[in-house]
Structures are given as structure tokens and as C-alpha cells.
């Protein structure tokens, strides 16, 4: 709960100024202002701390940087609209973003284009993008995994327990642990192989 007299910060680019659908019934301007003051601050903190990790979460599942940024933004907008009804927002936005990514991945048909996508405001500055590009070795290793294993590793990387992941994905905790073990073994093997390849190239 925000302290009296504190102005709620802007949650970020693309976030609506009014909650709208998640506020049941008519409210006077004073009531609406009090509502946003009470809940907008909490969402702003959540948005700023989680939107970029959410982009990385989607990239680990196979999304490109631009698509991951767009999907993360869309999921955050939806979270803002439903904010007072969400009990576990970190898991909620990842669930919604994953479903959106799967829908987009299965619906998109690649077509030639000469247009370069506009840069997203969620993408990190160039220096940070360079750091991200250094992680391509890991992303390539993840790409070799079955989709379910990639999905589970993305949740694990973001700090969720096997039981929490199981509840989100409709699996048992034992199945999550088994998939994670297989994924870690495959990643270790693939990364070791890539490292040896790099060493041979240098010699």
C-alpha cells in the first residue's frame, strides 16, 4: 500500500493510464484516483523489476529478441488490467506470455520482407545487447532441446521450484525433475562440445 501523498510512478511504456475492466462498477474521479494510487504503485514496481526478465524467459523458449519484447509488453498490459485479481504475478505473466508465444509461433508463416522492425523500448541499450549476444551459445544449446525441456529450463532459470513449475504446466513434480535432469545433461554435453570446437578453431 502506498503512503498518503505519494504519487504513483508511471509503470512504463505502453501501460494504460486507467485500469478500466478490472475495476467493477462505476467510480467517481476521487474513487478512481484512490484505486490507482493504491494499486498502481505496486504494479509499477513489478513492471520495472520483471519486464526484462520476462523477455529473457521467452528468448530461452525460442522467441527472437523483438518478438520476446513485444510479447512481454502485451502480457504486462494484460497483467495491469487484471492486477487486483492476480495472486502470483510472476508466474501469471510467464504463463500468459508463454501461451501468447506458442500461439504466435504456430500461426506465423514466414514471408520475405524488406522492412526492418522498429526497435522496441524494452530492448536494452546497445552495450547490454552485446552482453545478450554473448549468450547465444547457451541459446543455441537450448534450441537443441525438446520444447518441453526448454520450457522447464526457462522456468527453472527464473527461480521457480519443480512443484511450482508442475502446477503451471499441468505436470507432476517428478516429471519436471526428470525433464530438468535430461535437459541439464544435454546442455552440459552440447556446451562442452561447442567449447571444444572453439578451442580447436583457436589452435
Strands, helices and their partners?
Layout lengths: L28 H32 L4 H17 L7 H19 L18 H8 L2 H8 L3 H11 L4 H8 L3 H30 L1
Helix pairs in contact: 1-2, 1-3, 2-3, 5-8, 6-8, 7-8
Descriptive terms for the model:
single chain; 203 residues; mainly alpha; Arc Repressor Mutant, subunit A; globular; disordered N terminus
Helices, by number, come to 8
Runs in which pLDDT lies below 50 for 5 or more consecutive residues are 1-30, 110-119, 197-203
Instruction: Supply the CATH class of the domain at 135-203.
Output: Mainly Alpha
Rg over C-alpha atoms, rounded to the nearest angstrom: 20 Å
User: Do you know the CATH topology of the domain at 135-203?
Assistant: Arc Repressor Mutant, subunit A
What is the assigned CATH homologous superfamily of the domain at 135-203? Winged helix-like DNA-binding domain superfamily/Winged helix DNA-binding domain
Count of individual beta strands:
0
Distance between the termini: 60 Å
SSE order: HHHHHHHH
